[in-house]
Amino acid sequence: MKKLELRIEARDGSTNQVLEIGDLVIAGWAARDKVAMEHHIAELEALGVARPKRTPTYYRVSAARLTTDPVLEATGTQSSGEVEPVLLAAGGRLFVGVGSDHTDRDVETYGVTVSKQMCDKPVAGTVWPFEEVRDHWDQLILRSFATIDGRRELYQEGPVAGLLAPVDIIAGFAAQGSLSDGTVMFGGTLGAIGGIRPATRFEGELEDPVLGRSLRFGYDMKILPIEG
């Protein structure tokens, strides 16, 4: 079990809890907007990644890969982040957060499942109760920034309405229609502005314009050498 200390930020107050995570699922190719999904598939095809056999695809990753650390270590320079909404089931409740499906792009060209396992998955240290955003889910906004060649750039931006709704993405994975306690699911991403590329720092956020709040995280890259 991976233990994550998270702040649960609710409208009536906040608490800190240590949650035990046993299962991590990365939902890939999870766009509701098929045009946007085709754009992302084309981005990855340009990097040599094979077109998926089905959509969405649910990749299983070790729960130990989840982290709130501010530094991510990766082998070589060909990995990159992508911001995603994150669903977390604990104590019979569902929470929403935000994280990065950081992926080794070289490995992705010959094994997407393996590439998902290669890198840690940073998440924000704060989550919201899902019921507080359920009724205005499609108005939430995903956004990321990448620092490339010393310059911070807008890397991704758009409403989560472009992705499958939580009820649909969960139903595709869990026959009972709900996530089991201790399960974390990444819920898909947006196309990168200017194409997928590595960065020395990656930042992501999930904005709730209705309740006037945001979840944010960021991490710096520490590159480990490839010796053979």
From TrEMBL:
Top-rank lineage group of the source organism: Bacteria
GO molecular function: catalytic activity
Any one Pfam family match given in the protein's UniProt record, by short name: DUF2848
InterPro entries membership: DUF2848, Fumarylacetoacetase_C_sf
Name of this protein: DUF2848 domain-containing protein
Organism of this sequence: Agaricicola taiwanensis
